[in-house]
Amino acid sequence: MITVRVCDKNGRKQFERFVESGSTTTFVHVPSGTQAQLLAFSPKPGFHACIEIDGAEVVCVPLDEALTDIEIPKPPKPTRSELIIRGIFGGSRAPVKVTSELTVLVRRDSAEGQVVGTYKFHLLESLAFAATLERKIQESADRSVTPPVVYTTDHHLPGGRVPCWNCGAPLTAECCTGCGSCPDGTQV
User: Rounded distance, CA 14 to CA 23, Å?
Assistant: First the structure.
C-alpha cells in the first residue's frame, strides 16, 4: 500500500493532521516558518505520484525508492491575460500565492498510468487549522444521531417522574396516590 504524508522538509517530522469524517481530505497544520514537503512510502517501484493544484497536473515524480521526498510545487503563475486584466482593472500587485490545497494521484507504471490512489490535502497555518478543526468537530456533533449521554444517580431519566418503589406508578407527591406507600415506609 502506498502512503503519502505531509512532513517537515528538514526533519521528515509529520505535522499535526486530521481527516474529515466521511471524506478523504486530510487537513494538515503547517506551522509558520516551516517548509512542508510530501513523503511517499512505496513498497515497490513502478508507481508515480502526480500532483494537481487547482485542477491542473503540475508535476509527476517516480516512486522508485521505499521513501521518496517530493517538494510541494508552487501554484501556477497567472497567465499573461490575467496580468493584463489585473493591470487594467485591479491596479495592485497580486499577493504571492502559496499552495494550500493539493491532490496527489498515485499512478501505476507511468505518469499517464491507471490511478490507484488519491490523497487530498489542505495545508493550513496555525489559526486556520485550529478554527477548521473546531468547526469540523461541531459539524460532526450536529450530524450525530446518538442522543447525548445523561448521567443520573438513581437510574431514572431526568425530567421523568420517579416511580413508586412499591407499585411502580408515577409519584405525583411524596406519597403514592395509587397504593398509599411513602418513602419512609409508612402507609397513607
Answer: 20
Contact call for residues 116 and 106 (beta carbons, < 8 A): yes
The pair phi, psi for residue 17, each rounded to 5°, is -155, 165
In order of 22, 59, 144, 167, 170, the CA distances from 26 in angstroms are 11, 20, 21, 57, 52
Enumerate the domain spans of the chain: 3-143
Residues 127-166 pLDDT 10s: 999 999 999 888 877 776 666 555 555 555 555 667 777 7
State the Cα–Cα distance between residues 74 and 94, nearest whole angstrom.
Answer: 15
CA dihedral 102, 107, 111, 114 (to 10 degrees): -120
Q: Are 30 and 5 in contact (CB under 8 A)?
A: no
Using a cut of 0.70, tell me whether the model's pTM lies above it: no
Strands 36-41 and 67-71: antiparallel
Q: Could you give the CA distance from residue 118 to residue 107 in angstroms, rounded to a whole number?
A: 9
End-to-end CA distance of the chain: 75
- The pLDDT tens digits of the residues spanning 162-179 come to 777 778 777 777 788 888
Residue 78 and residue 12: Cα distance in Å, rounded? 31
CATH (residue range 3-143): 2.60.40
